[in-house]
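Troubleshooting: if your tokenizer reports a length mismatch, compare your output against this known-good record of 313 residues.
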Amino acid sequence: MANYQNDMERMIVESVLAELRKNGTASMATAAGSGNTVAGTAVGVEDGVIDLPDISKPTITNAKNMAAVEAMKSVTTARIGLGRCGTRQRTDTWIRFQADAAVAQDAVFMDVSEDFLKANNLETVTTKAATKADYLKEPNWGTKLSDDGKKRLHEICKRDAQIHETRYHEVISKVQVQIIISDGLSSSAIEANIPEILPALLQGLEAANIVCGTPVFVKNGRVRVMDDVGIELGCDVVVNLIGERPGLGTANSMSAYLIYRPTKETVEADRTLISNIYAGGTPPVEAGAQIVDLIKDILKYKATGVKLNEATK
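Known-good structure output:
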């Protein structure tokens, strides 16, 4: 994980400085440990990490109601109240934009690391999108398991015939819930949130006497790959923890999609969703508890999505 973060930070540094050099606003010579001053903004580089400008406070000077601007800034990561220099962005906000854009791009294009998967005991199954380029150019390929992916799914995941557990004097012989983790459009979101949400989710399901299959990682997976997984395994509920499309400053956001007994006719209205799972939204541990409560309702009412909403009114 540490190596992944260092690599990402290094790429951010290189991307930002390359843009500055291209526009003639930074010296071509940047030694580690040195500091450059760009249009009055200190940019310190040390051990491959750049000290980026802080844009959490308003930088405009002529606001009619500065208190209102400060209040808005305190509750959003949106780029508001940043001011300008003539008709252009201020240099510090432009530098921060370049860095945040680099983080968003990395979240999409970088893979979840093998070290991370090993540390979290996650085996991999593949979709028909063999590469990241396939995944981005052919969206439907990420919604279907590859032939090898189906084979690996059956090798990794417990099936009904393999389950015979006694909990609270009740014999359970069926996998009720299958959890999959998909990189989606943000590998960063997976690495940031899974170590917290997955244990909370598994412990909550066990405490609720709900049998869960072996969690798996779906490489280059989209939301609808959960339908393929549910059809293959025949479980009651599939939970897809998937990286959301990154925004500027929110590359770590993840969603949880839930579906009850998916079929080939399943539509998006059949899914239940919890979005914005990350430290700046719904904390991962809290989201894990919410998902467990949702699964209890799903198993009770045998529905998700619009049908679940109608059943619980």
